[in-house]
Fold:
Amino acid sequence: MLKASGITKSYGNLQILKGVDFEVQKGEIVSIIGPSGAGKSTLLHILGTLDKPDQGTVALKGTVVNKLQGDLLSAFRNRNIGFVFQFHHLLPEFSAIENVCIPAFIAKTNKKQAEIRALELLDLFGLADRAQHKPNQLSGGEQQRVAIARALVNNPSIVLADEPSGNLDSENAAALHQLFITLRDNFQQTFVIVTHNEHLAKTGDRVVSMKDGLIV
Ligand code: ADP
Structure:
């Protein structure tokens, strides 16, 4: 599903990624762990086309994304990659269902279809009765589940999550990771998850450890 080869990245004189090779199969949950500053988020951003490597290639479903630019890159990202961050980044003035629909509207899905898909996901996540709630009317765990529904609304090839449970208590964190497993089992959804939580990392299929800009 995803193959990154020979990824390097520097900021100024500081080499952050020193030649990373990384592969993910369809339906696989890969966790990336490692000390703070190891380069995990930088790698995730490059895998997600939010940042460009200095050297190396990233291919998603056979498309080399380095070559895409501008609107083409944005459209590719919108359709193929879902993002979940530590903080949900839901838009406060919009309801849960509206937040979930936004990437579908950007993809020019018609309103009715987008809403049906959004409600399907919210229902699957036990949030059907929260669809009209604004983010500040939801608990932390509920907000993160809405963020995951938003990441999934366009049926992306891969979901990239950066410390998705970092802001949750242990019970909600475990529930969130269980949700990833359910999505893998039922829909063959592919995930790359950066996490500090080694225990939760091990609930996935594979754990990749990073240190000083390399996979170790
Ligand atoms: P991790 O996610 O493993 O904690 P990061 O990928 O966030 O590590 O960061 C790795 C290193 O790169 C850190 O030392 C950080 O300060 C540096 N870094 C990350 N992004 C930038 C940037 N945009 N400009 C300069 N330095 C950066």
User: Anything to note?
Assistant: Residues 11, 16, 34, 36-42 surround adenosine-5'-diphosphate (CB under 6 Å). The chain has a mean pLDDT of 95. The chain has seven helices and ten strands.
